[in-house]
Design brief:
Length: 479
């Protein structure tokens, strides 16, 4: 990061302050089902009452696409909505000599989302999506490593080509689903999802960028506190030893999360988090680890302990809800017999009836690495469990980032979306205008412009400007 880049980013953020102050507050763009503290509840459905009157077009423009509910809609309710997101755009790149080049890019997502209540007690929901595209260069940075943020492992290339950062064709599937029940103070749910921790995009424990994973969770809550315990499983990008199958299976890790959230007065929320994880594949201890309790050649299981705090301050000012939050996680490093910082997150978020604004800073410390911890003689010590799923880090996409974003409904159907971010790999900004065609699915026309100045190794350009036009289906942007 050059000295001028943070200054330029700060000027962009300051220029947005009048935009953030404009309008009436809102959470229309919030993540599906998450509450104000960022907790993903068991009952996280977004269902609407059907419009019975009007013509067929008015009903189509308001209702869920398919409704298999009982007539009285009290015991059994199942709805299915399409997910169709497609856009094309152009990228204008400039190299260090000032030469420019323009090329097209595109992205296509299709699938379905379902939600329901069974027997008046069981809440179910899920999504099945497929995504293909010719990535813009910043997304191409991930695609060339066979992974897409928030989605997971992906295929790369087509007809022997399209496998470089500036021309990366990718193909990826996405699945999430859950079933759960809430009964008074107790609740449980199970499925495939990413149960993010905290109200920010990034997290010191489990972020919104994380790839969905299988889980089983039990929750107990009262008016002033909530405790959750869940187990999950992560998938690495490393292949294990070749067994009876033609291709070795990917290595797995298992993890347990324990969280306790306590409300202190009317404004503060403090959440303690503990995470223990271990890799399923056992490894062989090296020589010189005797002081750590290992004999040379002994098989051991890589593990990791992560603990920390999530502190939030909630305040209502007029019609706006203000949340200031900070997270710090620590990890126990067995090779040095010490506790080391892991991830820090700090942010400020404001929401209301018609707008949302957020500024967030994230940093991952060196203790985050899997196999770089040294012992007294300078050699590497025992491996710690990898904190990633399907190649995407569980805490944040970047080693360090500063991001500001705002989303606003300026009319019944018109919306604005803008963001700027400085990371260890790129400085980016984008601004989008959306027109809502169908609020329930949802379905929106989408037009946007942005710019990226990547610091990617091997990229044949210095910066690029991007334009895009298409249909937006309410899928959470990876960026």
């Amino acid at each position: 990061m050059t000295p001028a880049q943070p200054i330029r980013l700060a000027l962009v953020l300051l220029a947005w302050l009048p935009v953030v102050a404009f309008g009436q507050a809102g959470n229309w763009w919030s993540l599906r089902g998450a509450d104000s503290t960022g907790f993903v509840p068991i009952e996280r459905l977004e269902l609407i009452e059907p419009l019975e009157g009007g013509n067929w077009w008015q009903r189509t423009a308001h209702n869920h696409l398919l409704d298999f509910s009982d007539t009285d809609r009290t015991q059994n309710l199942i709805v299915v909505d399409p997910v169709v997101e497609a856009y094309v755009g152009s990228i204008r790149t400039a190299d260090v000599d000032g030469n420019t080049q323009t090329r097209s890019w595109w992205d296509n997502i299709r699938g379905a989302r379902f939600q329901g209540i069974i027997d008046g007690k069981w809440h179910v929901g899920g999504e099945l999506l497929e995504r293909q595209g010719l990535a813009e260069p910043l997304l191409g940075f991930w695609a060339t490593d066979y992974r897409i943020p928030g989605w997971g492992r992906a295929k790369l290339g087509k007809d022997g080509g399209y496998n470089t950062v500036d021309e990366a064709y990718f193909d990826v599937m996405f699945t999430r689903g859950w079933v759960g029940r809430q009964s008074r103070a107790w609740g449980w749910d199970a499925g495939i999802d990413a149960l993010h921790i905290g109200t920010g995009r990034a997290s010191a424990f489990l972020s919104r960028y994380a790839v969905p994973a299988p889980y089983l969770r039990v929750t107990h809550h009262r008016a002033q506190h909530r405790t959750s315990l869940w187990s999950t499983r992560w998938m690495s990008t490393r292949r294990g030893s070749l067994g009876e199958t033609a291709e070795a299976l990917l290595e797995r890790s298992r993890a347990i999360f324990l969280t306790h959230e306590q409300h202190i007065g009317s404004y503060f929320v403090v959440q303690g988090v503990y995470n223990f994880s271990w890799e399923v594949t056992r490894l062989e201890a090296a020589g010189g680890w005797e002081t750590l309790g290992f004999e040379e050649g002994e098989l051991y299981t890589p593990t990791r302990h992560v603990a920390g705090l999530d502190v939030q301050f909630h305040q209502r000012i007029a019609s706006a809800r203000i949340t200031a939050y900070a997270q710090q996680s620590l990890t126990w490093i067995g090779s040095t017999q010490s506790v080391a910082p892991l991830t820090q997150v700090a942010g400020l978020k404001a929401t209301g009836n018609r707008w949302m604004a957020r500024a967030e800073w994230t940093k991952r410390d060196p203790g985050h690495c899997r196999d770089c911890h040294t012992i007294a003689d300078g050699s590497f010590g025992p491996i710690q469990t990898e904190l990633s799923n399907a190649g995407i880090n569980l805490h944040s996409l970047w080693s360090e980032s500063l991001r500001a974003e705002t989303r606003m409904r300026v009319h019944e159907r018109w919306m604005l979306n803008a963001a700027a971010e400085q990371t260890d790999l790129a400085a980016t900004w984008h601004a989008d205008v959306l027109f809502e065609l169908q609020p329930t699915w949802p379905l929106r026309l989408w037009m946007g412009i942005g710019q990226c100045s990547p610091q990617l190794l091997g990229a044949p350009f210095e910066s690029y400007t991007r334009l895009r036009l298409g249909v937006h289906a309410g899928v959470l942007n990876w960026d």
